[in-house]
Amino acid sequence: MLKHQLLLIALSLALSSNVYKAQSTVWLDQLDLSVATQGNGKPGINTSVDGKPLTIANEVFKRGFGTHAESSLLIKLNGKVKKFSALVGLDDEMKGQNPAAEFEIYGDNKKLWSSGIMKLGDKAKPVSISLEGIKQLELVVTDGGNGPYYDHADWADAKFETSDGAKLITFNPIASEPYILTPKPAPAPKINSAGVFGARPGSPFLFRIPATGDRPITFSAKNLPKGLTLDSQTGIITGKVDTEGTYEVVLNAKNTKGSASKKLKIKIGDRIALTPTMGWNSWNCFGHEVSADKVKRASDALIKSGLVNHGWNYINVDDSWQFNRDGKDPSFKGKMRDEDGYILTNSKFPDMKNLADYIHGNGLKMGIYSSPGPWTCGGCAGSYGYEKQDAESYAKWGIDYIKYDWCSYGGVIDGLPDNDPNKVSSLAFNGGGDLDKGVKPFKLMGNLLKQQPRDIVYNLCQYGMGDVWKWGDDVDAQSWRTTNDITDTWASVKNIALAQDKASAFAKPGNWNDPDMLVVGIVGWGNPHQSRLKPDEQYLHISLWSIFSAPLLIGCDLEKLDDFTLNLLTNDEVIAVNQDVLGKQGVCLQTIGELKIYVKDLEDGAKAVVFANFGREKVKMSYRDFKALGISGNQIVRDIWRQKDILKLNTVKGNLVLDIPAHGVAFYKFISK
Ligand code: GLA
């Protein structure tokens, strides 16, 4: 009896000490937070995303995770984690702005808790949830429905209650090893130009034949219209054509390994940019650190890297070539305009005409940037009140493309306050959706550009306000941004991609929806870093921008291209889908879970199809719903990235095996046979 009692006492002591020992706390900040994906900056360990003490509504917290919407942190649990608790809110460091965000917690992909929309100044909200039986936890911060701007979000005092043997491992499920799919170009010549090129009668004509193959290549052309000449060494066609019409030209390229030819329709008429613009823009790469020297080097690098041989041909200067009131650099200062109101460049751009001549000498075109307000988004001199002089300057310098923003126009939409531009904020965005007042400044510049003695492609950058795709053509624009600024994160690319369908019906030759520039390679807006998109996400980004018929503007440092990035940008079959002369925009015709299937009709009767996996799980399935994609009969399925036929398909009896990585794509062409 005694023995028994002793045993029981011993057992209960052991158990209680076990329980005692087992109850322990693991702080979120003790886990590896670097694997979190977030909209901006780096995950803060016991700090805000800007590296300051975590502060919510004046309350300072010693421990926690400071992040930026859109944010996701995945944690594997092994069943021994009992509880999660935290205090959440927006960090005070963004005082003066209007961030909003929602904190959400998912357990095994089911929503367990949500904070509701939180604003700056809201008291930290407590959360305490049981994790019994949960294997995978996700801490999410969404943008609260107003874009991810200034959303500095804190998981303060975040911790887990665990029992003995608990394991918590953070992870990122998206594969990070780059892999190359684009085959190397053959040594024999191949001409990669689009099938059509448009210019206005009497305008200076410049077209560099893009061709791969060992150099030297000798170029020739049949049926070139009167007024044009071709340099046989460089493949650059110059001159001007006075007579309207469609000229069916045959381009030829020859080297010691062989020869190639390709038809090119030269359309002399009112419409230009008959295929989406392809080139480079300084913003995503250099931001305000841009200079004439860097732009010249980018122009040389476009050639040296071989990108030019695949059709990339614009070199566009973005913001900060003008006087900059907000920048501290003395080279931004000086006079804004001369006595007659003609704009002056800042000292980093000593001679714009010389720069344009240099770029043209390479057979490339040059773009520039301005805003209809008195200030650009970056605080540089805008065109307000001087639109005529600016359009004339662009023409005089030899500019071929203008990106025209909205920034600060909101501040003058009803006139210049007190006749003082300095009273206008650079970031006054209001009013852009007004179909009268919001359209007016774009119409004004559109008219002026058309009066210039050269073709200037006109790109509107007002982020889609007032459904710009419905009226962009009426103001003589060739392309228009549909969404807000892109950044090199998955959330940004995904949200922009998913917002494109609404405008798709308005894409046509000479009118393109612009989902913003590419974020592959070394980007950084002046703070260079490798794109934070994972390789599969980059394939998805390029594939979708191709099928969207989006203007393709590379946003990275062209002097530092790695093999993986070059592989993304030099796939002629991917580019051909984008440059197809029919000018349709691919749209999503089917959604299966997180898989979206985009289809684009091509001129040759084939269909390009992107199977885009927006989910975090691999998609493995046997696909047979070809009807939903408008595909029937016998087909050859060609893998566009690998440039290989992969399947002879009978759409009634057959199926297509899909095996698509998380955040990745399969990009196929279906050709009737
Ligand atoms: C806006 C545009 C960007 C860039 C900057 C320059 O934000 O959307 O693409 O041109 O202005 O300040």
TrEMBL record:
InterPro entries tied to this protein: Aldolase_TIM (IPR013785), Cadherin-like_sf (IPR015919), Galactose-bd-like_sf (IPR008979), GH (IPR017853), Glyco_hyd_98_carb-bd (IPR013222), Glyco_hydro_27 (IPR002241), Glyco_hydro_b (IPR013780), Ig-like_fold (IPR013783)
GO biological process: carbohydrate metabolic process
Start and end residues of each Glycosyl hydrolase family 98 putative carbohydrate-binding module domain: 22-162
GO molecular function, one term: alpha-galactosidase activity
Record's signal peptide: 1-21
Record field: catalytic activity: Hydrolysis of terminal, non-reducing alpha-D-galactose residues in alpha-D-galactosides, including galactose oligosaccharides, galactomannans and galactolipids
EC number(s) recorded for this UniProt protein: 3.2.1.22
UniProt keyword Transmembrane helix present: no
Name of the top EC class for this enzyme: hydrolase
Alphabetized SUPFAM superfamilies for the sequence: (Trans)glycosidases, Cadherin-like, Galactose-binding domain-like, Glycosyl hydrolase domain
GO cellular component: membrane
Keywords: Disulfide bond, Glycosidase, Hydrolase, Signal
Family according to the record: Belongs to the glycosyl hydrolase 27 family.
Name listed for the protein in its UniProt record: Alpha-galactosidase
